[in-house]
Amino acid sequence: MKVKKLTFTALFAAAGVLLPQIFHFIGGAAAGGVFLPMHFPVLLAGLLLGPWAGAAVGFLCPVLSCLMTGMPAAAKLPFMIIELLGYGIMAGLTSKIWRWNLYFCLLSAMAAGRLLNAVALEICGQLLHLNVPAAVSVWTAVLTGIPGIVVQIVLIPFIVAVFRKAVSGYDRT
């Protein structure tokens, strides 16, 4: 991995730990589920740096945040890792490998992450013999996060465009 790519991967991972803290400080504990601040750096890493960087940021953000701040809670951590891995990988595949339209990249990454979360919840529920309403849980998270999803769809294309113009020598491949 090139030094520049590795540096940006680390910066996105750090942003994924810091942004939720800012949102929780300003808006309380519920602000994270509404505005989805950890999702932004993961999506950006995938879109700008590719699926491997997106996966790394998707894994590191919740793990580092849990270790450093206690959020997400340990019980939610595996599911958040799976969801954010899905975001980062799918954003990277659709943007860097398949070269889809940026809006389709975002929407497919969001859908893939939530779908993986639902599947993980369902599998865990079956293995542990728990009545886990996976579809309801994920649907509730989507509805709660609509403000964050809208902000992502509006801001991320702008951030991607600014990043591509600002970073000299940025490699689009």
Description:
InterPro entries: ECF_trnsprt_substrate-spec (IPR024529). It comes from Ructibacterium gallinarum. Keywords: Membrane, Transmembrane, Transmembrane helix. The chain is mainly α. The protein has a single domain, classed as Arp2/3 complex 21 kDa subunit ARPC3 (Orthogonal Bundle). The chain is 80% helix and 0% strand. It is built from 8 helices and no strands. The chain is globular. 41% of the residues are buried.
Can you tell me the residue ranges where pLDDT is under 50 for at least 5 consecutive residues?
none
Q: Helix segment count?
A: 8
Structural category = mainly alpha
Q: At the first level of CATH, what is the class?
A: Mainly Alpha
Q: Rg to the nearest angstrom?
A: 16 Å
The count of β-strands is: 0
How many domains would you count in the coordinates? 1
By CATH, the architecture is named: Orthogonal Bundle
Distance from N terminus to C terminus (CA atoms, Å) equals 13 Å
Q: Encode the helix/strand succession as letters.
A: HHHHHHHH
Instruction: Characterize the overall form.
Output: globular
* Fraction of helical residues: over 70%
